[in-house]
Amino acid sequence: MHNATGRRVVVTGIGAISPLGHTADSTWDGLVSGRSGVAGVEGFDSADLPVRIAAQVRGFDPVAVFGKRQARHLDRVVQLALVATREAVESAKLDVAADPHRVGVVYGTGIGGLHSLEEGHRTLLDRGPDWINPYLLPMMIPNMAAGQIAMEWGIRGPSSCTITACSASAQAIGEASDLIRLGRADAVVCGGAEASITRLGLSGFAAMKALSTRNDEPERASRPFDLRRDGFVMGEAAATLVLEERDYALRRGAPILAELAGYGATSDAHHVTSPLPDGDGAMRAMLVACADAGIAPDEVGYINAHGTATPPNDRTEALAVRRIWGDRTPAISSTKSMTGHTLGAAGALESVACIKALTAGVLPPTVNLDEPDPDCAADHVALTARVADVSVAMSNSFGFGGHNASLVFRRA
């Protein structure tokens, strides 16, 4: 299954905006310091909601970034995507104009422009159809982050959007790497964004009983793999990677941060929200990613887990890991303990964490892991970061509908 085309894929740029910071570096600093980005909800009245906490991007002023006119025509999810992508493209020193038809975009989201949808519905009910924003539909449709990225940089190659719930941005990165391997592009801007912390979004997940209700201690609410976990915390973020064919990157003197060596994707075909109890889908995604990278599983030194802090998902992922590695698992942590679950942005944000871990020689922790659940036994990086010389890292993302994706990164 190992890549047969000979075209190797490398990461030359990264960018992020998250509950921990407005750049990849500030986000990483928050992760290694074990800082939680979870707090009381801001921006709308949540007093009557059963869940009143979230991991939001705070201190972000879209008017200052985009100007008043453009900001009004972009949903928050697209605003975040553009901020992360500007950082990634700049750090990669990518000159799209040099060959725009050989550059592509694959960008994921779980939900899309929920802020615009909710505002449009409220306007319809309160003021009537004549007051609907004519930009409503372009602002709410999920593909618009990919479209706006292509327009801002003049990208003329393949452009698409993955909408596979919580695995969306991981699959965007995997599909982007396939475009490069197949020779359909030399560089692809990829990643994902999510901005669905609204009254509707928060209420919907709360109604499913998927969210933590620790409203009085928000910083301790997200606790993956802990015996007292009670659900995930909603988060919002965007993260972008610039992928390039290795020789293409070398020819233009691009900075190479890591190699994207493997990608595995499977489907549980089981249930709309619950994973296969035996972890088979997750296990096979990890094995396919290793085979695609041409490595043995034992070469993986660190796993950034999906680790949402919902009881069945953590238990199933830990079981899948043990089915591959037995009792000698790689070091494993869930950065969702600090960022919350950023849904469609999670795979990309956690890929940034993996790349930083490889380059810095530090593994971010799972905070709030005070009492590990025996059913989630593994080599947990608990509470504080761990110094470790790791050359291969894996990122897992599993989404509603049974979508499973694993990515393998190798130190450059």
Automatic annotation (TrEMBL):
Pathway(s) annotated for this protein in UniProt: Lipid metabolism; fatty acid biosynthesis
GO molecular function annotations of the record: 3-oxoacyl-[acyl-carrier-protein] synthase activity
InterPro entries: 3-oxoacyl-ACP_synth-2, Beta-ketoacyl_synthase, Ketoacyl_synth_AS, Ketoacyl_synth_C, Ketoacyl_synth_N, PKS_Beta-ketoAc_synthase_dom, Thiolase-like
Catalysis: reaction(s): (9Z)-hexadecenoyl-[ACP] + malonyl-[ACP] + H(+) = 3-oxo-(11Z)-octadecenoyl-[ACP] + holo-[ACP] + CO2; a fatty acyl-[ACP] + malonyl-[ACP] + H(+) = a 3-oxoacyl-[ACP] + holo-[ACP] + CO2
Matches recorded under PROSITE patterns: KS3_1, KS3_2
Domain (Ketosynthase family 3 (KS3)) ranges: 6-411
Listed SUPFAM superfamilies: Thiolase-like
Function: Involved in the type II fatty acid elongation cycle. Catalyzes the elongation of a wide range of acyl-ACP by the addition of two carbons from malonyl-ACP to an acyl acceptor. Can efficiently catalyze the conversion of palmitoleoyl-ACP (cis-hexadec-9-enoyl-ACP) to cis-vaccenoyl-ACP (cis-octadec-11-enoyl-ACP), an essential step in the thermal regulation of fatty acid composition.
UniProt-recorded name of the protein: 3-oxoacyl-[acyl-carrier-protein] synthase 2
